[in-house]
């Protein structure tokens, strides 16, 4: 079995709202999978279906080889979940919550717990009611990272963490990957996803619009190339896939589709290259490309 | 006064948010006062009976401790005495919960941060909560004055009595305002304010029961008592109350001006860094979460039972003089020894109060789900049934413990008084615990609705309890047909120790509880969470 999570055609409606509208998601065993989408796209709904808290109206969902609704209890032995907004019991200390959750999942690695408390600089003696938002997140993160599970389901887990703690979080996820654990990471922070994830799924209005490795996704999107030539400027406009061409004397700047990059390089090399900068699209650019429609539509509505 | 900017808007927000809660607490407290005063007036029809009652009461330390002395042998005077403690405490509780809910609880949830960032002054939230609390108490006072006067009582005395209750509510509000500044959690603030009210009441109780009557001047309940409605109508104690309220509010503002948002003055205590070995399952967590509420109820009910144990004989003597009360007891408590009828009646009434605990504890499920804390537990290898079962088990066991506490308190103290603990303790313990199945029927209604239609669980469960309670009054005072009583599981339970034990109704209750809980759990398994 190589798929830890496989979801296809998932539909979930709440009254009139169609929160999930045929969503697909495949998470391979041992990978860190980024789950991206704007607010309200259906990320948390998908995760709650996977955790057996919501029952899908139609579609298939498999998690760790089982049915997330019917086999919830057994499957939960093998996963740990961190919500985006952790609420704790006001009269239990952080340390008590970490131990309780770990024990319910079948044991906690005390050395690892101590190490994590240290790295996240968390005081486990404080009562749940007195922690700040960031510290409540840390309690859930320590509980998840310290337990011996195969899958981590993290739903915007770093909201409220400061940049230093964000770095610690990234180290911890990298550690988890080295141990061969699977991570589903829903996030808004694109740099975090770019740094951590092997593969990414981008969803929008309850559907998956793109899924694959970052490299694959880049091939499908445009690279920005800036070059200074020694020889005569070739007719780059004829090269298939080249867009937004700007020529200024010997300098040229253009965007090129993944498929046209090789041809463009041949043309440039033939003309003699003095300097060359090639920028792959950032995740942010890919992300915005998908939501450009939404943004434009919103602007139109606003203009009216 | 820029620190008060935005108070008006916040007042409207509180009134909007509490549009049901405010009339429910303050309106029902007023109706309770009016209703009980009306019913008590008919209890002692003759001058001689009233004088007799006055002299026994004023000579009974237990009665003096619980309520204080009767000042006037008129029907109005005895009625005012009867409701004095209960209504003052009820309004105090309503006021302190209102204040904490709109000050410390708001800060704790982070909502006041959001509001505070708009054009709202630093003291506006406290000022708005106090304004609403004072207005609600005065509103209740107006309602009570009209209700008392409508019974034909002198308007001056009616107003004095109503204002003495409102004054107690205002003191509690001011006390809660201060407590909310001192502690960082709303639970602690409620605890501190309630303890403050309790200490004030206890000081009055000690002053009235013993030789140290000067102590009463240390308690606001002592002052409001000195207003003597229908017995001279004194208004000057209101000046003392106003002074105390002003002092407490000034202290609250002074602290509010110095502290950070979200912080208290009393430091938050640290707890254990690791969990005790027992804390390893959903059931253990449920027990831990219910423990505080259960201990508080058990202690309060046991103490109350003990107090009743000391006064049982004195009260029974009084009852002998009152035909109306004798009839009521015979109707609910059955025949036999008068003191047994008294215990049966009291246990019957208190079982309805304990039902509040059972419903509260059951609805903890809903609170856990709404706060998403349930998600945290259920994302572990814990099935919904195991999770809900843990809470329901603790709620049911807690109900039995609270009832056992009641029986224990009564049986032990009454047994010590009569010198026969061996006989009284088991009888009264059994009389209290036999009430558990009927209470659990109402808790099971809450559990069933929680599983099937969670939104309606709380209102429906409390509505059924209220209906059973009203049915009581309707049958006892309003002339409603006694045959209606079969609806109430409380009335169907054998009224030990005076009535005969009967197992059939109890078995029925067990069947009903099992059916309701099964339906609720089946619903919970099928529905979406959150």
TrEMBL record, chain A:
Cellular compartment(s): Cell membrane
Residue ranges constituting the ABC transporter domain according to the UniProt record: 5-230
Database matches in InterPro entries: AAA+_ATPase, ABC_transporter-like_ATP-bd, ABC_transporter-like_CS, ABC_transporter_ATP-binding, DrrA1/2-like_C, P-loop_NTPase
Superkingdom: Bacteria
Gene Ontology molecular function terms on file: ATP binding
Keywords tagged on the record: Antibiotic resistance, ATP-binding, Nucleotide-binding, Transport
UniProt cross-references to Pfam families, sorted A to Z: ABC_tran (PF00005), DrrA1-3_C (PF13732)
Membrane protein topology class: Peripheral membrane protein
Principal subcellular localization: membrane
Family: Belongs to the ABC transporter superfamily.
PANTHER family per the UniProt record, alphabetical: ABC TRANSPORTER ATP-BINDING PROTEIN (PTHR42711), ABC TRANSPORTER ATP-BINDING PROTEIN NATA (PTHR42711:SF5)
Protein name: Daunorubicin/doxorubicin resistance ATP-binding protein DrrA
TrEMBL record, chain B:
Residue intervals passing through the bilayer: 22-44, 83-103, 124-149, 155-176, 188-207, 235-255, 293-312, 342-363, 392-416, 428-453, 460-481, 501-524
Keywords: Membrane, Transmembrane, Transmembrane helix
UniProt superkingdom: Bacteria
Entry protein name: Anibiotic ABC transporter efflux pump
Organism: Kibdelosporangium persicum
